[in-house]
Amino acid sequence: MAISPRVGGGSTSQSAARILIILDRLGQQPSQADLIATPGVVKVVRALSRLAKLDFWLRNPDYLADEVLTDIGSGHISPADGLPHVDRMLAGPAPLLHLYPMRRYKYGAWELPDNAIAVLKSYGFVTTRRAREIDTEASSKARRDYFLQEAGAAAIATMRDEIEQIKWYDEQAEAIGLLDVRETGSAAKVRQYQQPEYKATPVGRPVSSILDRVRPRFEKVAATHGYATTSAPSPALDGSEA
């Protein structure tokens, strides 16, 4: 089976842009302790695990669409809020054009963002810090937090004005923000492992697509709520695993 060249998240600049969007749209407000330790921060995502899980949904429209449908069914998301997002994610070539598969490892979909983070740090856009800055062997395994600096917030605001494609990822982040998931990576991990295709993907392989079953599920939910869909199947892109 051919591996899509999109596996790995695309170019370093694409990965960096997604990280800025995740921090800006889905980050928490920094605590007073954060502001003292890292001046100039405006948002924080606590732990690489959460950053990776959010990035998975950002770049896998089929999985995010299915999660939104699940929360519509549970009543956590209203159909008026959720169905337009699902429609957008599944319309025409969108779910393949915006698909950047992530490999599954022992603890789920995972990808080190080191190159993108290095670039963002070099511009003063992002800062990282261990949750415990203690000079012990255990400190090397402490949770790493990711902080958006004021310069990074200004940079993503400029990108929104200049790069049309950013709108798609802002809307993806908005849809993720609707989900019934707490501010931890473990909560997102539990939801992602509830997807049988995700769980069954062999370690080291790109997580399998669920587009073929999400489209009919959306059509059924949309019909139930009287929502007129615009989504329609489209041919797979060259080199994709869809």
TrEMBL record:
This is Uncharacterized protein. It comes from Rhodococcoides yunnanense. The lineage of its organism: Bacteria, Bacillati, Actinomycetota, Actinomycetes, Mycobacteriales.
